[in-house]
Amino acid sequence: MITLDSYKHRENKVGRPRHSWTRMTSITLTIVSMLISIIIGIVPAHAADFSKCSQSFYGGVYPEFTNKKLSKDTQDLCFNGFAVLYSDVSRTPLWSAEYLTRQRLEQAKQIDREDSFHEESRLPTSSRAKLADYSGSGFDRGHLAPNGDMANRSQQYDSFSLANIAPQSPRNNRYIWRNIETATRYLTQQYGEAYIITGVAFTDKKVQQLKGRVLVPSHFFKAVYIPAINKAGVYYAPNDESERIEIISVDELTARIGIDVLPVLDRQVKAQAFTLPLKAGEKIDTPVTPAEKPSWMLFVVAIIDWVMAQLQA
N or C: which end of the chain has fewer CB within 10 A? Predict the structure, then answer.
């Protein structure tokens, strides 16, 4: 990709135009500026990249940082079937975003797993996590957007990019998180669609590193929003062998990690933690509308109340 710096380098190398830029009219400057922007791709990073996969975000709006320090040296990556915000600092994704539907999950059931972990070629070499970073580390290569959500081979291959992977405790990855991913798919099957933001947090004062390069998250989270019932909740678990897990609200997650993962939701939805299931098929706290009593029954009840009142008089 041609960057602004590389463009300037090329300009200096071939020499500047003989005419003076100061003599150009404001209209000409505007036209030239627009042409240069088109040629070298100088457009806002989020608008340029996430616009290509806006369907992965509820309302087309991606997560927002409330702690601006976390946004340093991040890169937007659109994949087939999901989106990722990657951190050059941690060499892990900070979050992934997916839009799940019944149809997508039905297609995903037809595909057997083919592991194809690979480095992300779109990232600068210095920023990439490498396969060697995880070798012998004692940590699993944990998916953020899981393989089980992928509806075709192209999506599946993309899910094994190390840009979608973070170091995860083996027991957390193979038991707790596996159950959560299955429960999330169950919710999607039940309600038809769901928006999912899966991510990592670095809340410990001392952060462990793999090979002095990849940072190990202190926590993993998975935020789930179900449009059919207008409810949202977050799975939040420490990245260890304890098998602990919390169900918290979107607002509580924002307070803990400095990222508002679902910024366009109503305040009440973000403040209330929907009781997410820990296993597929588990009974959950779904809103139930009481059935109205038939009018004839109300009439009978009214007569009985009148008779009882007359007897007590």
Answer: C
